[in-house]
């Protein structure tokens, strides 16, 4: 009999986050943790974040590109929650004092104009609900040692959520061909990676549709005003203190991040 349950897993993960202490995967100790229960753990961690005053402001997708799936050795996309405490204002350094081993990844970000409720959402109907498209950098920070986890582990851990920066340029989706929107990632002035929006499920709107349909199965919807991070386009890069990361997009502008 496992002594693990949803409450205990949520406590363990939030304690690791708050104390900046990495830990072994939950599934090492709770091998029966299945995907549905892992989402229940994720929802419990959200409930506790809201209890301490945070506001639910959106949703993130993870592992939507092959680059991310190959690196993390997990081949299924997932969703997780965003709160106002995860917003990193443009120009602020990475808050190293709150993070274990931050990595940065470029993402295409949607700000929703309309409510989007699955099932049956397609990329086209999803895109029609978007108000503006932005460049973004997500700062991920797994609570698991060396970012080693299985799909249920990373789902329970709110998909390694840390912070995210949203670029100041917002464009209407109808002006952009997001499959062809390119991004160059620079670390300390050197280009280290590149991708186009097609890396994300063929088109970032497919990722948005996937999130809406996933939430729909759980009786939830994507709400107007929510931010949606569609998932890292490239592999993530480490951001130690002193590092300078930039993501340059074709039409969405550039986002800069300093490791502090
Ligand atoms: C999981 C989080 C994945 C993304 O954009 O793929 C994610 C991880 O890589 O630790 O945020
Ligand atoms: Mg991400």
Automatic annotation (TrEMBL):
<protein>
    <submittedName>
        <fullName>Fumarylacetoacetate hydrolase family protein</fullName>
    </submittedName>
</protein>
<dbReference type="GO" id="GO:0016787">
    <property type="term" value="F:hydrolase activity"/>
</dbReference>
<dbReference type="InterPro" id="IPR036663">
    <property type="entry name" value="Fumarylacetoacetase_C_sf"/>
</dbReference>
<dbReference type="InterPro" id="IPR050772">
    <property type="entry name" value="Hydratase-Decarb/MhpD_sf"/>
</dbReference>
<keyword id="KW-0378">Hydrolase</keyword>
């Amino acid at each position: 009999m496992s002594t693990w349950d949803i409450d205990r897993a949520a406590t363990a993960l939030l304690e690791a986050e708050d104390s900046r202490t990495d830990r072994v995967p939950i599934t090492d100790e709770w091998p029966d943790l299945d995907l549905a229960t892992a989402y229940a753990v994720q929802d419990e961690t959200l409930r506790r974040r809201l209890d301490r005053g945070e506001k639910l402001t959106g949703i993130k997708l993870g592992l939507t590109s092959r680059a991310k799936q190959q690196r993390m050795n997990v081949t299924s996309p997932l969703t997780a929650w965003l709160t106002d405490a995860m917003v990193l204002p443009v120009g602020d350094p990475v808050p190293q004092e709150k993070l274990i081993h931050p990595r940065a990844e470029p993402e295409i970000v949607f700000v929703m104009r309309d409510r989007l409720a699955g099932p049956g959402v397609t990329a086209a109907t999803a895109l029609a609900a978007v108000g503006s498209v932005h460049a973004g950098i997500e700062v991920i920070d797994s609570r698991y040692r060396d970012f080693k986890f299985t799909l249920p582990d990373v789902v329970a851990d709110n998909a390694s959520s840390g912070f995210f920066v949203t670029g100041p340029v917002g464009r209407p989706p109808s002006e952009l061909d997001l499959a062809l929107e390119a991004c160059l990632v620079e670390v300390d002035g050197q280009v280290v990676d590149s991708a186009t929006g097609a890396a994300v499920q063929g088109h970032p709107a497919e990722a948005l549709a996937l999130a809406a349909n996933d939430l729909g199965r759980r009786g939830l919807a994507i709400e107007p005003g929510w931010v949606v991070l569609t998932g890292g386009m490239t592999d993530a890069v480490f951001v130690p203190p002193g590092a300078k990361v930039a993501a340059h997009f074709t039409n969405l502008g550039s986002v800069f991040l300093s490791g502090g």
